Amino acid sequence: MYKITVLPGDGTGPEVVAEALKVLGAAAQKVGFKYETTTYDLGGDRYLATGELLPDSVLDELRSHDTILLGAIGHPDVKPGILEKGILLSARFALDQYINLRPVKLYPGVWTPLKDKGPEEIDFVVVRENTEGLYSGAGGVLKKGTEDEVAVQESINTRKGVKRCCRYAFDYTKKRNRERKLTLVGKTNVLTYAFDLWERTFYEVAREYPDITPDYAHVDATCMWMVKNPEWFDVLVTDNMFGDIITDLGAMIQGGMGIAAGGNINPEGVSMFEPIGGSAPKYTGMNIINPLAAIGAAQMMLETLGEQHAADLIDRAIAKVTGEKLKSLAAGKMGYSTSEVGDMVAAFVAEG
Ligand code: IPM
Ligand code: MN
């Protein structure tokens, strides 16, 4: 019996989470696993009403459940940064979700802005470190608001943090068993302290995986190749900030935010899965947003829980819906409503 925390969140979050739960239900019935959900109303509305972001009482509940499915965080009436830092980043840090896993996979029938590239060429996974680097909050400001203002934002990289991230990436590459190639993405030519630590640690861990080819690329060149030769990549591992940036590029080449899913993973603890697209306030309540990213998040959640068969069923169902049904992945242009897309995926899962 899996205990799943559901955080529908803001904007279109609740609509897409409803479809993800529909598909989860279909998968559970087909495969025979059991689960129960507990829903919390974290997000912009609760913050505006009570001032609460991620209360300790809720955090304790999250810790006592197996996994988390998140819709979206972000509210037009709340200043940018408050909800992101107070809920999303707080949960990542408090639950030590040290991996941000972002598959970049072009499903059949999906339009990509890359000319002459298809599902064969666009299929890689980014392993982003998720608790350190520039996201650690280290730094400070002096003489704010004056001409002498000084702002320092430091990238914290610990040997332990880098090592566990590299190890996860090697294990993941091995399990994925595609090209068995892992590319470290860095900037060793300029960030000579941080990425020196990364590079040494990466090649040291690589020695434990003789069947995986370790590879290195600078982050700027990686952006170039993701556009020009995405087929060169199998699995990439990188720090928090670079990972944040290259996965938005990745989301675009896989067809946009309608389909981009991610997992905040603590392999030894409680993980949290989310569509990475945000709360899309202008589409809220219209039943036109694409739920496939949230459904993909549920798929990743099942994979992480060890329900590989159910995850594979969902993956194939998504491929059928993109390949045979949808006109576009964009909100309002799919040819179907949000709930109809959820129905179709659930029906394909039930068919097997
Ligand atoms: C992401 C988002 C977050 C991040 C924001 C909302 C804090 O962009 O999950 O990639 O920067 O990590
Ligand atoms: Mn991002």
Q: What is the structure about, briefly put?
A:
By secondary structure, the protein is α/β, with parallel strands linked by helices.
Helix/strand-derived category reads alpha/beta
Number of helical segments?
A: 11
What is the CATH-assigned architecture of the largest domain?
A: 3-Layer(aba) Sandwich
Biggest sheet: strands side by side, in what order? 2-1-3-12-11-4-5-10-8-9
Shape: globular
The name of the CATH topology of the largest domain is: Isopropylmalate Dehydrogenase
Q: Which stretches are poorly predicted, pLDDT < 50 over at least 5 residues?
A: none
Number of strands: 12
Give the SSE string. EHEHHEHEEEEHEHEHEHEEHHH
Percentage of residues in strands: 15-25%
Supply the key terms.
single chain; 352 residues; alpha/beta; Isopropylmalate Dehydrogenase; Rossmann fold; 2 domains; two-stranded antiparallel sheet; binds 3-isopropylmalic acid
Plain-language structure description:
With about 350 residues, the protein is of the alpha/beta class. It folds into 2 domains: about 1-105 and about 255-350, Isopropylmalate Dehydrogenase; about 110-130 and about 155-255, 3-Layer(aba) Sandwich (Rossmann fold). Helix content is about 40%, strand content about 20%. It has 11 helices and 12 strands. The protein has helices at about 15-30, 45-50, 55-65, 80-95, 160-175, 195-205, 220-230, 240-255, 290-305, 310-325, 340-350; strands spanning about 1-10, 35-40, 65-70, 100-105, 125-130, 140, 150-155, 180-185, 215-220, 235-240, 260-265, 270-275. The strands form 2 sheets. Strands 2-1-3-12-11-4-5-10-8-9 form a 10-stranded mixed sheet, with helices on both faces. Helix 7 packs parallel to helix 8 (about 240-255), helix 9 (about 290-305) packs antiparallel against helix 10 (about 310-325) and helix 10 (about 310-325) crosses helix 11. Manganese (II) ion binds near residues 244 and 248.
